Amino acid sequence: MFKAEIISEPNEDICILLKVENHSFNYICECGEAKNLSVKDCQNTNAIFISHTHIDHFVNFDTILRHQIGIQRRVVIVGPLGIINQIQNRIKSYCWNLIAKGAISYEIREIINENEYNSAVLQPPFWEKEEEKTVSEAIIFKEKKFSVTCSVLDHKTNSIAYLFKGNDAIKITLEKEFTPGKWVAELKTAFDENDKYKEININEKLYNSKDLFHLINIKKGKKLGIIMDHAAHEENHLKIKHLFTNCNEVYMECFYKNDDKEFAIKNYHSYAAKSGEIMKLCNVDKAIPVHFSRKYNEQDITELIAEFEAAKN
Asked: Cα–Cα distance between 255 and 275 in angstroms, integer?
């Protein structure tokens, strides 16, 4: 369902490109400097997800903007509280006298908490806030095939962790006495709406929907998590366990080696053993450590990943 690729090199600021099976657009998670992020990647992007606006997660936004000017559609940007003003200020620092309205527009959603976000639209040439509103909704982004929810973690500032979840697939197992027909869609609708007493007509015989629910099989949608900078403390770990337990795949911040635990505590980051441990507690199928301190060389990163894997397994 989801195919994630770490676009940044280990010694670059983090950027992850997410593609969805049989879907026209891609999605960028974190705006690190990533030299491997192509013009086409930027132009094909339908939404950008930013955990927080420290420079190593936000530095490449201007380049992405540069490549998206002229695509003539709306792009959603999701991030922490305050990001509407931050993006507006970044954009308005440039001169836009040759760019007309309609060249691009951004709908920016800043997360207040796990169930509420502010939204505003910015577009050239003046980039003033339009369509401002507050939305009470746990789903912060939705497409036909998947939706995105989040958790607000503590990094001495809000740091948003994102969960991408594919829609569950409902399939009907036909028994011998039943033939395909419009009743299949009616039964799926009744199941979705928990309508146990909807009358379903199959070959001129009426059934209560609840008596047919045993024909329904649910294939759970795939789940992919992006967990960036956060302090390795209990409150954050409780939130991570709540949202990311039984994920299929998670990209997990792993900024420091175990020997540098004191730096992790001081800087509200996680470290190898603790990141691996929480992934084990979450029963994640595939956990990928990402976003390493730039002070580490290649050998250090190899050791850090080994420490993560030891704690995870």
From this structure: 9
Closest Cα partner for 236 from 165, 290, 156? Answer: 156
pLDDT digits (tens, 9 = 90+) for 207-227: 999 999 999 999 999 999 999
Q: Using an 8 Å Cβ cutoff, are 223 and 164 in contact?
A: yes
Residue in this structure with the two tokens 């970044």, named with its chain if needed: 90
How many residues are recorded in the chain?
313
Residue 156 neighbours by CB under 8 Å, 6+ apart: 231, 268
Max CA separation in the chain (angstroms): 73
Residue 116 sits at φ, ψ, to 5 deg, of -160, 140
Distance of alpha carbon 80 from alpha carbon 57, whole angstroms = 12
**In the 3-class helix/strand/coil scheme, how is 31-82 assigned residue by residue?**
CCCCCCCCHHHHHCEEEEECCCCCHHHHCCHHHHHHHHCCCCCEEEEEEECC
Query: Which amino acid is present at 293?
Result: S
- Per-domain residue ranges of the chain: 2-166+221-312, 169-219
Render pLDDT for 243-257 as a digit per residue (tens, 0 to 9).
999 999 999 999 999
Domain 2-166+221-312 has CATH 3.60.15.10: yes
Is residue 267 packed enough to be buried (19+ CB in 10 Å), middle (13-18) or exposed (0-12)?
Answer: middle
The whole-angstrom separation of Cα 274 and Cα 254 is: 9
pTM of the predicted model, to two decimals?
0.91
Beta strands 26-29 and 45-49 are parallel
CB 77 within 8 A of CB 84: no
Neighbour-count burial of 269, counting CB atoms closer than 10 A to its CB (0-12 exposed, 13-18 middle, 19+ buried): buried
| Joined tokens for residue 74 | 């709306």
DSSP annotation of 256 reads: B
Q: Which parts of the chain register pLDDT below 70?
A: none
